[in-house]
Amino acid sequence: MEGMEDATKIKRLHLPGLYMPELEDACVSLGQPAYRAKQIADWFYGKGVQSFDEMRNLPADFRSRAAQKIDLYRSAVEQQFTAADGTMKLLLSLNDGARIETVVIPEADRLTCCVSSQVGCAMACAFCASGRCGFERSLAPGEIVEQALHAGRAAGSRITHVVVMGVGEPLANFRAVVKAVRIINADWALGIAARRITVSSVGFPEAIERLAAEGLQINLAISLHAPNDRIRNKIVPANRKVGIDRLLHAGRHYFAKTGREITFEYVLIAGINDGMAAAEELARRLKDYPCTVNVIPYNPVHELGMQPPTEQGVQEFIGVLHRRGIKATVRRPRGVEISAACGQLRASRIRAARKGSIPAPGPRSQLRASRIRAARKGSIPAPGPRSQLRASRIRAARKESERK
Description:
The chain is of the alpha/beta class.
């Protein structure tokens, strides 16, 4: 009993969130030599074991004490779906009951994992499902890393590329994302080359410049989605305090520091940001810019009412960019029938929980849902106009980024 009481007083560590020196310190604190850390990492990342009991070259007593101090996983696969094109979507349940999404995208020469950086999103982009259920919290480094581990196990193959493009704004969770990227890149962990890792951002110029100073050779994708501030302000509310010119300047700075060309993501939405005029304006703005434009036909989201462009519209748009000398590709939506767009699966689970057809989400989501219900009944003040709610979410994310 005495040993059990002591164990409860120990602050538990999370293995996929530890740098090697931190894991070595943990081993030493348990009375073992530092080299045990590399043995643990080999079992966990290399062989994919899911418990200390499986690490057979470690002393039995050490395995027992390590299990009392170090968590291997703090999430579990709650649901898994596979689309006809091979795309897989995982709904993960975290220790606190929150849910996040991870997508696995198989291609001929690669296996890409798209990971989330936050539970929910405060950016409230008009076309995206991620912000529909609000922002709950940022993920810890280990919670980001273990998404790639779950993805590899689900796919039955080694992940070759990681994109931090799932739910959440990565640069609003700066420190955790950078630490997770370094662990994913480390040769003792997942060993994925920096140039096969991409971080996407809706656009925080100061954070982009800060990322450039980290000395990482990772790719940066900026979610542009519009050729001018008038359109971008409507569909990406965070742009109202930034502006495209400032964002493009930050991208140039990133290229100058890292030598990595910028990728601009451009979700093409019928009647909003498509058409020849928009393509011409985008081409003029990006003339001589070190970039590639990923044109992505809109993947429809339940209840948002927006529509994808026609195939002819897609080809005309990208044709203008090509004729104006802009490198551009069409990235087709994947896993449409399994709600593979960001936030769709999590949102559908929350909607179903509210209807009582599935168990409700964790405590945080329950509290938020009860507040919304109470507001609708008039027993507490409603959140206010949609623009005010969006602004409050953006302010909350920025404050969290500053604290980190």
